[in-house]
Amino acid sequence: MRKGFLTILVGFILLSCGDGNVKILVDPDIQLAIDSTEIAEYMEARGYTDFETTDLGVRYIILNEGTGTDIDESDIVTFDYNGMLTNDSIFDTSIKAVGDSIRNVENIPDKFTSTFTSTKAYSPFTITYTSSGWTVNGQFVPGFSDGISTTLNKMNVGGHALVIMPSALGYGTASRGLLIPENSVLIFEFFPTEVTKQ
Q1: pTM for this one?
Q2: Which of 7, 8, 11, 183 has a CA positioned 20 to 30 A from the CA of residue 99?
């Protein structure tokens, strides 16, 4: 009797979802454990052992400090970036050559060619650097802000940093566009290109 009741209950829940698609939300602690394993595997596969972790839980590595102008609080900083997933697929970039190279891959899925079109505008970020973070494009992405705030002042123009954030500090349970699935660990590479002292 109990098994029959459970079957009816599950069937009712599935029917009440409209198109039959069920979205199961994972407990945040379980998702963090999944993300931590994914991040550890990503870093191990690439030989990244010398990393640090912010108070929020963003991992970062300064791959190259750079030799140009240093970055201080309130400086205006311009930087290029690549946004990636742990499978190395790039979902965004400010670098035209990177976008062109993605678009020119043979047999690339349509979701990439529609994102990296030949008319896409590529432009670096320009911000007033602050160690306390800020809102990006009207949307607060805590891991992105925390990663930039933590790494830029440890670099100079010409440097290169890698920032890896658990999904909860990225877009969480929401997918973004065609290229970022829900619960995605996000990875950003930052390349400071110009600093104006204030």
Answers
A1: 0.81
A2: 183
